[in-house]
Amino acid sequence: MDSKPIITKETKNRISVDYEGKLTFKERLMQKVKASNTWIKVIISIFKFILMLGISYVILFPFFSKIAGSFMSIDDVVDATVSLIPKNPTFDIYKYMVLENRYFEAFGNTILLSLLCAFIQTFVSCLVGYGLAKFKFKGNNLVFALVIVVMLIPHGTLEMSMRSFFNDFDLLVPASLNKDLSGIVELLTGSRVSLKNTYWPFAIMSLGGLALKNGLYIYLMRQFFKGVPDELEESAYVDGSGTFRTFIQIIIPLSVPMMITIFLFSFSWQWTDEFYTSVFFGGPQAPWMMPKLIEDVPLHLQFNHSGMKFYENVIDNTAGIMIILPLVIMYLFCQRYLVQGIERSGLVG
Amino acid sequence: MSNNVKSAKKLSLSTFKSLFKGKASLDARKARAGYVFVLPFLLGIVLIYLPILFDAIWYSFSNFATEYVTGPSGIKEPISVTYGVGFEHYVAAFNDKGFYQVLLASIQEILFQVPAIIIFSLFIAVVLNQKMLGRALFRAIFFVPVIISTGVMETINAADLMSGSADQGINDGTQQQNGNEIISMLDVQSLFANMKIGTELVQYVVDLVNDIYNIINYSGVQMLIFLAGLQSISPSIYEACQIEGATGWETFWKVTFPMISPMILVNAIYTVIDAFTRTTNPAMNYASGYGGTAGVGVAMSWIYFLLVALIIGVVGLIASSFVFYQRRD
Fold first, then answer.
1. Residue A329 included in any domain
2. Under an 8 A CB cutoff, do A331 and B31 touch?
């Protein structure tokens, strides 16, 4: 390496530099391998790759088996020699799901409800999270503790009281005291209203930041805003911008990645939610939702067959595939925002 | 004396006014703005949540009865009313042996899953945070369960007979050799036979591996939170470590782990909450599907809630003493 470089001019804009005794690429590579523990690194990275591949298989296999099963006829289901690839593939299950289980009606209703909830929840948790993160007021910690408590009390415990509260809806007054006390709604309109089988309970719960997993969203938003430097707002205040103008013009554009993450969560969790739809909806007038697709077996698929139990299972799986299909498509487009949004957020503990 | 009172009154009046009129100190104005921001949640708590909560607690102390009330049209309409019965339902819940079993199993499951989920999600987050072949693809795959395997899909997966080995569900130590397990108890026992390791530990590991499907499914949010935490660690710290000659192992335990420890606390609490409010939770299912009086079911779920709140308190207390908070200036 001590030798002087030999510079030759190849063309007008190109020179080549050479050393006396310069090593070929292969020799240099061998030297590098010998000098460092490259082999160990290669082995570790192969090991990591295989591990990740294995876990990915565990995650994806149930979906593959469900998809494979969805094309099976009842003969394939009971045939022990058929495991993944059906012998007589049919589209029957899909066909009758659409024709007899009103798939598209469920799709329309669910997309409306999920969008409604996702928009309101994202906005409200953004507001509350910002208030909790950036303002010192009396009871700040108490409000945050309340957020955690709301998240902690399982909604299963509140199922019965939620149902009666919204069936006989009045703000401020518990359903069991309805007969004796009149709440705000009754004072204003003269009577209580039943919100059963409407989307109002979802909207009202979302507006209060009380719906499905809203505590988590508020928490994530709060941690995100804690990571936003105060100087940003201070400079806006110095320039004469008010609190709310600062929030709308500076903070909201800044928090779009995090808001997309929250939106994705609330949209998809509302999409597959079966608990709230069973609490707030009921009876024959209930809007037909996606999770209800698994409740009935389509008429044309009901056979008097010994393998019916397994076939019903396959039908349920197919319904599951059809329920999540729109979510999968959405996820394909949005997955990078999901990870990036939370990654760039700089969440602080 | 009277002057003092007057000035005090004046003072309180002026501070009261200043809270609601424009002329207030910056702090007071900021505090007011803070209240406005959290107002939706506060209103929700007072107007919606407290009444619901009141009912839920009241139902556990009362029974339902049907009363007939003459409606505006003159026809007698049935309405359901409640009357208090004291602690009857709680006594009934405590006397139910099935409830004890399911409560124990449920809490065991939570305590079993929490460390597994935390360790697994931290490990995956660390790996996904490094440069590796196909990282973008793996990231996309690992967050599929967060988006998709929730709600009704959990129900479908739990009932799924077809997907074979991948989703086993918890073994409950029944040790059935049904050929569906990923690893067999017998193989592991013969492997560890001469190693003087307790069978409980072996059983735990076997259960863990066979439960891998659920553990992966339930650790999505935790992975995201860990990833975010890992990203917020300043690269200059790692650079300093490299210059000082620390190995990767040392860097992990001396830098990454302390820096990520607040997230471990958060994730531990979130995992407990998630496991306990899940719709497939056996104890909650037992309570909500309780055959007898409705009030007993509600009482059961309150008992379960108090127990889990206690666990969360203990977990939080233990974990928070180990948590390292970086001082931010």
1. no
2. no
Minimal CA separation from A2 to chain B, in Å: 28
A174-178 CB contacts, 8 Å cutoff, 24+ apart: A174/B51, A174/B52, A174/B54, A174/B55, A174/B58, A175/B51, A175/B55, A176/B54, A176/B55, A176/B58, A176/B59, A176/B62, A176/B82
* Stated length of chain A: 349
Taking only residues 239 to 278 of chain B, the set having a beta carbon closer than 8 angstroms to any beta carbon of chain A reads 261-263, 265-266, 270, 273, 276-277
Q: Are residues A130 and A181 in the same domain?
A: yes
Q: Does A56 touch chain B (CB under 8 A)?
A: yes
User: Do residues A216 and A144 both lie within one domain?
Assistant: yes
Q: Are residues A168 and A227 in the same domain?
A: yes
Q: Which two tokens stand for residue B178?
A: 């049904």
Task: Look up the CATH number of the domain holding residue A119.
Answer: 1.10.3720.10
Say if the Cβ atoms of B151 and A243 lie within 8 Å.
no
Query: What contacts B59, CB < 8 A, 6 or more positions away?
Result: A160, A161, A176, B82, B294, B295, B298
Q: Does residue A324 belong to any structural domain of this protein?
A: no
- Is A4 near chain B, with CB under 8 Å? no
pTM (2 d.p.): 0.82
Q: Domain check: are A21 and A141 in the same one?
A: no
Mind telling me how many Å the CA of A240 is from chain B's nearest CA?
13
* CB contacts, 8 Å: B150 with chain A: 268-269, 272-273
**A62 contacts B167? CB cut-off 8 A:** yes
Domains plus CATH for chain B?
Answer: 1-59 (no CATH), 91-170+211-322 (1.10.3720.10)
Q: Please compute the mean of the pLDDT values over residues A79-108 and round it to a whole number.
A: 81
Name the DSSP letter for residue A299: G
The DSSP-derived string for B228-263 is HHHHTS-HHHHHHHHHHT--HHHHIIIIIHHHHHHH
Residues A37 and A113 both lie in one domain: no
Band of pLDDT at residue A340, cut at 50, 70 and 90: confident
Range of A268's domain?
Answer: 102-295
B223 contacts chain A (CB < 8 A)? no
Query: For the residues of B31-79, what is the DSSP string, one character each?
Result: HHHHHHHHHHHHHIIIIIIHHHHHHHHHHTTEEEEEEEEE-TTS-EEEE
Query: Which residues, in sequence order, are bridge partners of residue A9?
Result: A15
Position A66 in a domain: no
For B71, other C-beta atoms within 10 Å of its C-beta total 10
> Is A131 within 8 Å of B228 when comparing Cβ atoms?
no
pLDDT digits (tens, 9 = 90+) for A36-49: 777 788 888 888 89
Four-point Cα dihedral A242, A245, A249, A255, nearest 10:
90
Q: Which residues of B fall within a CB distance of 8 Å from A247?
A: 37
Please return the burial class of A304, using the count of CB atoms within 10 Å of its CB with bins 0-12, 13-18 and 19+. exposed
Beta-strand (E) ranges in chain A?
6-9, 15-18
Chain B nearest-CA residue for A45:
B132
Each residue of A117-160: pLDDT tens digit?
Answer: 999 999 999 999 999 988 888 888 899 999 988 888 888 788 88
| Number of domain units in chain A | 2
Same structural domain for residues A48 and A113?
no
Residue A56 shares a structural domain with residue A118: no
Residue in this structure with the two tokens 């059906």, named with its chain if needed: A86
CA–centroid distance for A260 within its chain: 10
Q: Which residues pair with B70 in a beta bridge?
A: B76
For residue A120, being part of any structural domain is answered with yes
Regions of chain B short of the pLDDT cut 70: 1-24, 70-74, 77-80, 160-189, 192-194, 196-197, 291-293, 326-329
Q: Looking at the structure, do residues A160 and A243 belong to the same domain, yes or no?
A: yes
Joined together, the tokens standing for residue B33 give 């703005």
